[in-house]
Input
Amino acid sequence: MTQGARVTTRPEVHRREVATHCPYCALQCGMVLREADGRIEVAPRDFPTNRGGLCQKGWTAAELLDHPDRLAAPLLRDRPGAPLRPASWDEALDRVAAGIRAVQDRHGPDAVAVFGGGGLTNEKAYALGKFARVALRTRHIDYNGRWCMSSAAAAGLRAFGVDRGLPFPLADLGRADTLLLVGANPAETMPPLLRHLADQRARGGQLIVIDPRLTATARQADRHLQPLPGTDLAVANALLHVALTEGWLDRAYVADRTSGFDEVRRTVAGYWPAEVERLSGVPVADLEATARALATVDRAIILTARGAEQHAKGVDTVTAFINLALALGLPGRPGSGYGCLTGQGNGQGGREHGQKADQLPGYRRIDDPAAREHVARVWGVPADDLPGPGVPAYALLDSLGTATGPRALLVFGSNPVVSAPRAARVESRLRALDLLVVADFVRSETADLADVVLPVAQWAEEDGTLTNLEGRVLRRRALREPPPGVRTELAVLAGLAARLHAGAILHRTPHRTDLFPTPGSAGSGGGNAAGGHGFPADPRTVFEELRRASAGGPADYAGVTWERVERDEGVFWPCPDPDGPDTPRLFTESFPTPDGRARFHPVTHWPAAEEVCAEYPLHFTTGRVLAHYQSGAQTRRVDALRRAAPEGFVELHPDLADRLGVAGGDEVRVVSRRGELRAPARLSPAIRPDTVFAPFHWPGAARANSVTNDAVDPLSGMPEFKICAVRVEKA
Ligand code: SF4
Output
């Protein structure tokens, strides 16, 4: 992973260097960017998460800065069906503001919705949430992180009273005697994390992986459990059943630090390993050995990721693994515990500061009167004027353009045309809008449908903070200014707020002028430095306000300063006092619940939302490949990554391929009740013969989400990306 520095060029003549972090995943690998005479060099730096390593995506991230596909001016569509044409910023922002006013005049404040992203900095996520509630007064805001972390978040909240992906530093992985990964494939999604697994193995630790595919991570494991997709919950209950039968319960921990165990004990009593073997395909011997490996060592860690979480029963599946961890007394013990591996770059911070439908900054609930009072005070508005909770991401997208749904949508940092489940339906909803605005730095597939496209800055062109998978707040540092014609998202929000404010004065509109507090410059958001009307464009100013807004909340950033983040290589929340300690390790003494105890919740297996049948006899599951990130809008444009993984594919077992008359490389159709994808077949004995897999990074014919199911978890709103019923045919 460490190799020669990678270089991209731009005709400039100055020399600069910044220590920053990779723009992609939640590992947030440390890197150094150097610009000299127009050349940008990426080099890894030693940071606690990546320890000097980068994956291919990080090495090549700078290539997008000067990419020919980069947008350099706003684009407008003059009428439906007309091509997008370049426009000035004033024309574009005027058009957006006028469109918002027209829709809200006619249909009310909730007729405008906002859709954010888990890659936005903390400052942008915060500003977006405030913009929705204060400037637009809409309850409709959610983000693509709903599809990443929401099930683990909901399970963590109800068990521990807080949602922080890893409640301990990543380095703890290296100290675990047994490490169980459930539905996680870091060898492909975040390769430098394997350095911590190597530590663990070097100390004699055992790695166990639960995954329906023999992934690159599973190949390195001491034991691989390969359950039928959708049966992880039953596997977890069986592991707890074995632990109880064998007398491995940590009785003192359960008695002193938890509540609700008896009901869980009764529930898992019925999960006999032999029956779970019949259901899941995992042999009894593997269930017993795994339970033993977790229960009979000093330190054990259980980690879940999207494979376990992206199900209509994702919250309950994670809960089953948390129950197991609690029964064994793991959470809060150094080198032990339960955690989940966050996916997107700011998946953690993005869900703490208000771009989630039910949240206010500091991980406060929007339906909590005390939380509303606090945040409203910081924002300078009456608490009664803050809207209530909106709906989760898929429900929001599904309602667009309907009789009761929003008529306008502002998208920041997301590409739902590729990444949403049942994507053709989502695409049709986006086309039904009166106004679609997309802020991005390339023409993503979603931007292609927009009425207005706003070109925004990239990671190396902005300052700010992100919060990584450990709950560690990090500094992103700008190497250079955005190119001419490009603005930051904060500047875009400032410009729109100014126009909505002016519109509220000049027209009789739903926008109340007294809801634009903290008047700053009277500027109209005329550039990256401008700001006002409560929406500063300067990230540091926004962060200072975020600190105040989060103070006293579960995710308390009041004691986090940029200086401290730089000095200490990150600050772990909660950190309420600038002079007090931060919190690298949670739960050491108690849990942040009303009685200080963690809570067990009994959970039972139920079938997937869509079961196989004669017409659709195979299970379909999705995931990532090493070279690409999320919808691929960025990584598909990087030469080296495109060469490494040029197109989508369908992975199927050779026995299944035989039955279907398919050879490797043949184009196949994967058909579900919602649509189909076409891609070349890739034969692999690494997958179960009853299951097919496709990566979700590609649009068009190979779009995996044309097939996926939009059934969602009732608690988290997480769609069931990881299992649906399909048939496969040679195309
Ligand atoms: Fe590190 Fe993730 Fe970036 Fe790869 S994509 S370099 S693992 S932060």
Q: What stands out?
A: DSSP finds 23 helices and 29 strands in the chain. Confidence is low (pLDDT under 50) at residues 9-13, 506-525.
